[in-house]
Amino acid sequence: MIALKDKSSGTVVGSVTIDGELVEFHQGETIYQVAERCRREVPTLCYDKRLEAFGACRLCVVEVEGIRNPVASCTTAASEGMIIKTKTKAVDKYRKTLLEMVASENRNLDIDALAGYASQELGTLLDRYKANNGRFEGKQSGESNEDDKNPFILRDYDNCISCYRCVRVCAEQEGDHAINVMNRGFHTQITTEFGNDLRDSQCTFCGQCVQTCPTGALTDKKAIRAKDLPGDISKTRSVCPYCGVGCAVDLLTKNDRVVGIQPAMDGPANEGALCIKGQYAFDFVHHPDRLTKPLIRQPDGNFREAEWEEALEAAAEGFTKVREKYGRHAIYGIASGRAPHEAAYMVQKFIRAGFGTNYIDNCSRS
């Protein structure tokens, strides 16, 4: 027997057989969760482990002995003695047909990876099951909202498959309820209250809807601008510097240029969530107005460029004069939220150890 230990899942209450292997399951676990721990490849498009299981796409169906029809594994609780098959010819055919029905509605299946964290999910499954997106070609649902002038999120609903992950993550994770579902059938549409732009809704532009979308129907406008830049996309794990929470992020780069940011889904502090600054405020890195040399203020109030040695000597002289004339409490340090954590540490060390005062703050504290 394979004993899979997962403290977060509670007490072991029984065992099931998955693809011929006996596996223990925990209180409240679904078949999908057990299969995922067993590293079985069960596809899904509407599932996000941070959200309540929805069972909309039906791609996660499995065969359970004694049950006539395939069951959605994400919404079916595991129970003692179940004999489960996650991969059979019948199940694969079922999944392929569902994928072909979904893909037949999508205007664009070639989605750039810069669109969002999960944007490749549909395309990956189509390739895995060799699905033909033209088999059920016909009437389409979804209508793009290209008139929304917000600077962060492209609402390309021609690619929407009504998985509702965007709606659910906005409600369940963020508590904003900025977007919702309107109408039914081919008239289904993701919309805001009264059909307003996102800027006029409850949206905080956290980007969660973009990062959970599996088709690129919601796209990161800032990142996608770099799709034609040369070079491959690289991801570098880092920590957002904007406040003290310590959200884990993946920096997206092409060559030596930062082109986007994605939340780390396994980040211990944020678990895939970011605020508007952590998600979109990275333009300063390559901004043309960013200083490349230190500046020294002149007697007339203007600044001139200088080399680092001269600038550091001028700064040291200024600090010394202020301390001698007004005392150590006249010196106050403010760290930038755009600086690396090492720089923030050095600023507080400089103020506390160098001048014996705790007059130190951060521009992102609030």
Give the SSE order as H and E letters.
EEHEEEHHEHEEHEHEEEHEEHEHE
Q: What is the CATH-assigned architecture of the largest domain? A: 2-Layer Sandwich
Level-1 CATH class name of the largest domain: Alpha Beta
Can you tell me the residue ranges where pLDDT is under 50 for at least 5 consecutive residues? Answer: 1-9
Task: Give me the count of strands.
Answer: 16
What structural class results from the helix and strand content?
alpha+beta
Strand percentage, roughly? 15-25%
Shape: elongated
The total domain count is 3
> What is the fold-level CATH name, i.e. the topology of the largest domain?
Alpha-Beta Plaits
Number of helices: 9
Strand order of the main beta sheet, please?
2-1-5-3-4
Task: Report the radius of gyration as a whole number of Å.
Answer: 26 Å
Main sheet overview: 5 strands, mixed
